[in-house]
Design a protein that fits this description.
Mean pLDDT: 90
Largest sheet: 2 strands, antiparallel
Distance between the termini: 36 Å
Shape: elongated
Structural class: alpha+beta
Helix content: 40-55%
Radius of gyration: 26 Å
């Protein structure tokens, strides 16, 4: 509801607040996919939730022609914000104001031939106005409407984007299931293809079980290489 604040600004604010976890995620993905990283990169502002302050440090990040790169888990990416001021205004605030006018039996109430009383959205908008200023004013007068909107969003959060959504939005191909399965079945039994087999299983499972598996981690050796541990979250 703040003038001048929309998707782009909220996205920037969110990125700043979660920059620390995004740096950790980027480093993990760089290790998995062999992305070169550079040492001594200035992190930018990182929010320290324990100390309640902003810090900055030198870290390791991929560097592109336009600067340092932060990767974002696709499970948290959204095309649109969950909270939409127009949606709130049209489907929550306006209907509430209609009820207010009906209860008060105001001049906006129309009596239909069948005896039903109504107040039109058009008349409510003409009386109260529109735009963020109006929405803020009437929300302060009727805070229960915003509470109801928030509760509805909590009950039904926006789901993660699907493989198809991401492919469409980025003009890229989705997972090639035949190739993913082929990389797995082409592996030979034995130690020679053990690492290749693990990477093939890893790639197939993280695509197949997305978004349930959202932060993949490759195995690491233990007991001097005699055993391996792997993690998928």
């Amino acid at each position: 509801m703040v003038p001048g604040v929309a998707e782009d600004v909220v996205s920037d604010i969110t990125t700043n607040l979660i920059r620390g976890p995004l740096i950790d995620y980027t480093q993990a993905m760089a290790t998995i996919h062999g992305i070169p990283i550079q040492q001594g990169v200035e992190s930018g502002p990182i929010w320290d939730a324990v100390a309640g302050t902003w810090i900055s440090e030198f870290t390791q990040l991929p560097i592109t022609s336009t600067g340092k790169l932060l990767l974002v888990p696709k499970v948290i990416v959204r095309q649109h914000m969950d909270y939409k001021v127009d949606e709130y205004y049209r489907y929550y605030l306006i209907p509430h104001l209609q009820d207010v006018e009906l209860t008060a039996n105001s001049e906006l109430v129309q009596l239909l031939k069948n005896g039903r009383r109504r107040v039109t959205k058009k008349d409510v908008e003409a009386k109260y106005g529109s735009g963020k200023g109006t929405i803020v004013r009437e929300t302060r007068n009727h805070p229960e409407v915003l509470d109801r909107y928030r509760q509805s969003k909590r009950r039904k959060p926006q789901p993660p984007m699907t493989h198809e959504d991401i492919a469409t939005e980025t003009a890229t191909d989705g997972p090639d299931w035949a190739d993913l399965l082929g990389d797995l079945t082409d592996c030979s039994p034995g130690t020679q293809d053990a690492s290749r087999y693990h990477r093939a299983v890893f790639a197939l499972l993280k695509a197949l079980f997305y978004p349930a598996l959202s932060h993949p981690r490759l195995e690491h050796e233990i007991h001097e290489g005699r055993k391996r541990l792997s993690h998928l979250r």
